[in-house]
Amino acid sequence: MRKLLLAAVLGCLSVHALAQDQLAFKDTRITAEKLGLPQANRRTSEPFVVRIYKTNDLGEILKKQPNGYPFTITKDYVLREYEKPRVHEGVDLQSRPSPNEPSTPMEFKAGVHGVVVRAGDGNVGMIAVQVWDGSVLEFLHTSASFVKVGDVVAPDTVLGLTGKKGASTIHLHVQAKSNFRKPISPDLVFRIGQQPLQTTEKPEDVWEDFDADESNVFEPKVIDGRKIPAEQAPETKWGVEVIGGGGSVDLNLGEFWSYSAASACALAWSKANPDDLRLTREREVKVTEK
Ligand SMILES: [Zn+2]
Known about the structure:
Elements lengths: L1 H18 L23 E3 L3 E6 L16 E2 L4 E2 L4 E6 L2 E3 L13 E3 L4 E8 L4 E5 L5 E5 L3 E2 L6 E2 L4 E4 L10 E6 L5 E2 L1 H7 L19 H4 L11 E2 L7 E8 L5 E8 L2 H14 L6 E8 L4
Antiparallel strand pairs: 1-6, 2-3, 2-5, 4-16, 6-14, 7-13, 8-9, 8-12, 9-10, 10-14, 11-13, 14-15, 17-18, 17-19
Helix pairs in contact: 1-4
The protein binds zinc ion.
């Protein structure tokens, strides 16, 4: 599944490169360096991997996990007693001054243009930035916030300090929501957010009804009650096509996990090809089982 996504991103990247706009980066993925953390800090977990946790006899995930838990599965897995799967929706980044030093709270930057919609509140210390297309990049476990809701931020704006609020170790977890508040790839939203806001007007509704914990639930797929597929992803994706004469598909620009990412791709293509009068189309497609 990840291979498919990568191919889609690359497909649209060449389009962006033509446009020579700000989305035309060679590697657009989130890295520690792009968020102002020392370069040596690695990505220690990827979005949409499945982790297995130990539970009590009520099926509740234990606050303090025993040795070896939680662990990430790399192939399909059959649950044992007192185990529960959870989908990890974000990228985890280390927070160390240098590779030999222990993790410590450190300043990190927004990495994107946007408006702050969460400023470190809740039991996971979430700072969230809404980018121009309405999708949101969320930074979890922070220990301090230097911004407030409504602040307009740029990629170099320092948002706060990393921490371990709601986590067992100090690190930075970066996840994303589409404008429909569904979990999507943080790398995609990071890329979309390289483009400046189209207006400096603050959003009227700054997630009044938004419950951070509630919206973080992405139920893992389970087969026959016990079997957990290693690959977990949203049920649908969006294809972007260029439509030619007679309604035929002339070009396939890529596939994305969210409509917002797909429309950003379509927009970039139109900007890159101003003399081309063909229309683009975003089409929702079911993700087929392998
Ligand atoms: Zn994480």
